[in-house]
Every structure is written in C-alpha cells, then in structure tokens.
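Write out the 3D structure for:
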Amino acid sequence: EKFYRKGKHLFKKGDKDDGHMYIILSGTLSVQRNGKLDQIILEPYTCVGERVASGQSEFRNADVITLEPCVLIKISHSDFFDIMDRIPSFSSRVLDISQARTSTDDN
C-alpha cells in the first residue's frame, strides 16, 4: 500500500501503461473522461485500472486524480491474474465493476 497526496494524477487518458490497477483503501478518486463534465467518483474498497491490468486495453481511457489524501494498493499485471485465480470473490467483484463501467460507457 502507498500514500498519495490530494491532487495527484495516477494516470492520464491515453497513457500507455505497464498493466497496474489500484484498489482504494482510503480516500476518493476522480475518474474523468472529458474533464469534470464526465466524472465518476470512486470510494474505498473499489478499484480503478482493471481494464489495463486484465489485458483488455493497453492504454488508459480516463484521467484519474486523487480528490483527497488516499491510500492505494497497486497491483501489477501478473499479480492481478494470480489473485484472480486464487480468490474467486476478487474475480467476481472486479468483473462486476468492469461490467458496470462498460454499461455506463455505452449510455
């Protein structure tokens, strides 16, 4: 786990990434596709970056910024698949989050 200060960009839309996702332990994140007009607020015990970590995309599809001090767990691409194999509840939760975001993207 790692501490991030308020206003920190975790990544920006279009960034090529090495496959990391983040789990929020404390604090909130802003996910912005078209600036603050198209913003989703993420709270503790959810994740961001699952599409890149799962291999569905190699580029970030949004800006992600800390709205307050945050503690996050950074999970590498290889650890992501290891956890998915070992912990079925993690796998189903990430799938639920990804599907909810995909249906939001379609609207």
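DSSP finds three helices and eight strands in the chain.
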